[in-house]
Amino acid sequence: MTDAPHSGDAQFDVVVVGSGAGGMLAALRAHDLGLSVVLVEKADVYGGTSAISGGGIWIPNNRHAKRSGLKDSPEAAKAYVEASVGDSVEAERIAAYLDAASRMADYLDEKTRVRYAVAAQYPDYYPSLPGALAGGRTLDPELFDASVLGDELKRLRPPSPTTLLMGKIAWTARQAHKAMSKSFGWRFMVVWAMLKFRMDKAWRKKTGLRRDRYAALGSALVAGLRRSMMDRDIPLWLSSPLERIIEEGGSAVGVEITQSGVLRRIRARKGVILASGGFEQNQSLREQYLPAPTAVRWSATPAGQNTGDSLVAAQALGARTALMDWAWWCPTIGVPKETSQRGVFAERAFPGAIVVNGLGRRFANEAEPYLEFGKAMYDDHQRTGKTLPAWVIFDAHFRFHYAMGPIMPGQIMPDRRIPQEWWDQVLWTADSLDALAGKIGVDPAGLRETVDRMNRFAQTGKDLDFDRGGNVYDRYYGDVNVKPNPCLAPIQKGPFYAMRLDGGDIGTKGGLLTNAHAQVINQSGQPIRGLYAIGNCSSSVMGTSYPGAGSTLGPAMTFGMIAADHLSQQV
């Protein structure tokens, strides 16, 4: 049960702001080091963006990979991260992450309810760089029986339908990959998952919950961390937004929050850890820092939550920032009646779909990582003014066999089952490419030429424009049954379909500048005593890059541990 706030001013050794994975890990670690800790959360549910994420963590040299016989080394990891990040991040921060990441994963395994398994086939995102591996550095959460949360399950932020099989059934990222790539046994796996869900109907009826008993991906991570907090009686105060950081003598000594319309003070004897996400839900800050055009509604993060509260509060204390013009870019699709848009992470790699701008032209490798693809949308829009939005185009063959965003394959979700209000808002269709182009405002001659060119590439298996399917990462989500290139297939069978892609994100990348101890740095380059920042309210240790799946949560939790360790040593 969520703890009620104390009367009057409260006092703890540590105050953690934000209940995502980074904040929860920091709270657990601080408690285990003998400190009293409280976690405050703006929303009336816990889990933040972490709860709707994939839950993966990018951990070089992790024990799970070693047990599976996969080889890695500190030297290879260092070479790869340095090649990925370049000089956009201080070397000391990178070194701190590489040194502590595997220890953080061990701590999760040994001291919490969270369980991870290695995604042995999930490659690093930049396979051509020195030190890149074809798999083993990304860890995927195991399913978690969320019924052990009791009433706290009702306060767990619901997962995004995007992360669930058919929008309702929990599965791991490894299982999702098997289905998406149509690897051997995928149909049996999907049918078995559906049967298990159906057989658990009695539990859903008993609890009144429509969700799966099992949590998966980011929801599994957050559920496991919350249960671990409950094991330790660590208080979690919901509906408690941060108003300001209390400063005395140049040090952060606590926070002011609002509860039920009343301002409350919480003193922090050791320090304050900010873990409250970025500023992507704040239109004013987006317009101040991010490239134009920009819109809150394009983001895939929880509506109204990540509004930069910690950023603004720390800036009032003279904090420095970095990377403020960057986000974790990801193309998104809007769905009627949903408050957040859905990210399109993997489907762009499926064979038989292309993404074009308003000129009907491709502008990037559709199978590349979503950060790079989202950035390519903005770059092409600067050149042409025709790429926000972009359009994903596919034919009847693709529609029958593959999913795209909220639209499941036609063999599962035929056109007649698509909600009426989704037509010409989520999905457009026409009998010819020219007619489809007319509906969506794309140049028909450009689209015809692009499709003809891609159809020739599909025959040869070689994309001469962007080399789609030309590396191990591209092929990870390709259809293993399609030859010679699992990411290329012709677009030729009507009717034809289109879906709108906006320049969305899964959070901002820039934020408070921190040092190797996760301390917030002031304008003079010195740490603000007692103030730490982790996750998306800090500037990313990965700079403008995305080395592998889990490069958001892995650093958030690792620097959460680093922050707790450091502040525990302060007198």
Question: What would you note in describing this structure?
Answer:
The chain is of the alpha+beta class and 571 residues long. The chain has a domain at 332-503: Flavocytochrome C3, Chain A, domain 1 (Alpha-Beta Complex), CATH 3.90.700.10. Helices cover 31% and strands 17% of the residues. It contains 16 helices and 23 strands. It has helices at residues 21-32, 63-67, 74-85, 91-111, 173-180, 186-199, 201-207, 217-232, 283-289, 309-315, 370-384, 396-401, 433-440, 444-460, 472-476, 553-568, and strands at residues 10-17, 37-40, 57-58, 116-118, 138-141, 144-145, 214-215, 236-237, 242-248, 251-259, 262-274, 321-322, 327-329, 332-333, 342-343, 353-356, 390-394, 428-430, 496-501, 505-508, 511-512, 519-521, 527-533. The strands form seven sheets. Strands 1, 2, 8, 9, 10, 11, 22 and 23 form an eight-stranded mixed sheet that branches. It is globular and about 70 Å long. The two termini are 33 Å apart.
